[in-house]
Design brief:
The protein has one domain. The chain contains seven helices and no strands. It is globular, with a radius of gyration of 17 Å. The N and C termini lie far apart (46 Å).
């Protein structure tokens, strides 16, 4: 039980760590186009993302797949860029478009899971109870993501329903800011891929 609480805490602290803000940006981009009334859609999106990153995190920890760290570090801001562009280009959430967003969240979760794996592998060392610690870490990551989602949805509620900012303006501002930040991140990480 002590190990569970330790790895749970490490999971949520890792996702909420401002030094690794790329994952925070992705979660904000993922739910930035939604308002408080869309909480079910957001919950499904975040769950799809969690399933994706849990799978590749486990596969990497159990050495089923190997990680090309510079490639993954470059692809993470690319996933943020694509998500931000998707938010800007989609004015209305159509059912087919929503299913596509769930699929993309799952796929992008696979990439982010590989990004988490280096951190978790360094924590685990030669631990013998990897499965329990991996589970606790994933639950902690999900908890941290839900804190970010709650913050974004509360902010959207305040700005859209109380301050009366138009929903499209809110989405455009948040998504454009995230696009700019992630573009710079991707550009900074690109040289590490080049020979």
């Amino acid at each position: 039980m002590q190990d569970f609480s330790l790895y749970f805490q490490l999971g949520w602290q890792h996702i909420l760590d401002w030094q690794g803000y790329d994952h925070i940006l992705f979660v904000i981009a993922l739910c930035g186009a939604y308002t408080f009334t869309d909480w079910k859609k957001v919950l499904i999106l975040v769950t799809a993302f969690t399933l994706g990153h849990s799978l590749t995190l486990a596969l990497s920890i159990f050495k089923v797949i190997s990680v090309n760290t510079p490639l993954i570090e470059f692809l993470i801001p690319v996933t943020i860029l694509v998500t931000a562009i998707s938010n800007i280009l989609s004015k209305r959430q159509k059912p087919k478009g929503q299913r596509f967003k769930y699929t993309i969240a799952l796929f992008f979760g696979l990439i982010h899971g590989l990004g988490f794996s280096n951190y978790l592998r360094s924590l685990l060392g030669k631990s013998s109870s990897v499965t329990a610690e991996l589970f606790a870490f994933n639950v902690g990551l999900e908890f941290g993501q839900l804190i970010i989602v709650a913050g974004v949805l509360i902010l959207s509620f305040i700005l859209i329903w109380i301050v009366k900012i138009k929903r499209w303006d809110y989405n455009f501002f948040v998504s454009s800011a995230i696009f700019g930040i992630s573009f710079v991140m991707a550009a900074e990480r690109l040289p590490a891929l080049l020979p």
